[in-house]
């Protein structure tokens, strides 16, 4: 397998978990004073899963899509109801191998492109067995100091 772990997670239909969302934007530069009121409730299902019955999740493995913000260990939200088009990041089965890549489709040329220059594109020909499982709509990754991907010894930048 290249690029995606085969463990598939089914989106939970009908489950709601709303968390507070604050009206104040968070500055990524200098800190700003926070306001003390809640704008409303935010249900991540509404933002990440517009088509619950057509949505599943997979865990990414490897670094072939790091340039697109997909890292090893990320959970990818995949919508089977969306039409894959040029530029879509898709979950595909290529000659019985599962992968996540960006779809290139222009002037009769079809290929699956990695978002890391260390990986070559997968050229699709008439002999290639290709099946698109769905379009990746989101990547969920955590910023946890205990995670091997982000952990650094104290004092390192």
Q: Would you give an account of this structure?
A:
The strands form two sheets. An eight-stranded antiparallel sheet has the order 1-4-5-10-6-7-8-9, with no helix packed on it. The chain has a two-stranded antiparallel sheet with strand order 2-3. It has one helix at residues 44-48; strands at residues 4-10, 18-22, 38-43, 55-60, 75-79, 89-94, 97-106, 109-113, 122-124, 130-140. The chain is mainly beta and 157 residues long. The model has no long low-confidence stretch (mean pLDDT 81).
SSE layout and pairings?
Layout: E1 4-10, E2 18-22, E3 38-43, H1 44-48, E4 55-60, E5 75-79, E6 89-94, E7 97-106, E8 109-113, E9 122-124, E10 130-140
Antiparallel strand pairs: 1-4, 2-3, 4-5, 5-10, 6-7, 6-10, 7-8, 8-9
């Amino acid at each position: 397998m290249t690029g995606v772990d085969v463990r598939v997670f089914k989106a939970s239909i009908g489950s709601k978990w709303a968390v507070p969302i604050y009206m104040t934007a968070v500055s990524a530069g200098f800190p700003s004073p926070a306001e003390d009121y809640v704008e409303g409730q935010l249900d991540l299902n509404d933002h990440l899963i517009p088509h619950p019955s057509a949505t599943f999740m997979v865990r990414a493995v490897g670094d072939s899509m790091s340039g697109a913000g997909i890292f090893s260990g990320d959970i990818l939200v995949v919508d089977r109801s969306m039409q894959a088009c040029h530029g879509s990041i898709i979950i595909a089965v290529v000659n019985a191998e599962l992968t996540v890549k960006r779809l290139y489709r222009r002037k009769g040329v079809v290929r699956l492109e990695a978002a890391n220059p260390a990986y070559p594109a997968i050229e699709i020909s008439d002999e290639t067995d290709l099946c698109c499982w769905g379009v990746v709509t989101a990547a969920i990754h955590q910023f946890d100091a205990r995670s091997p991907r982000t952990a650094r010894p104290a004092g390192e930048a």
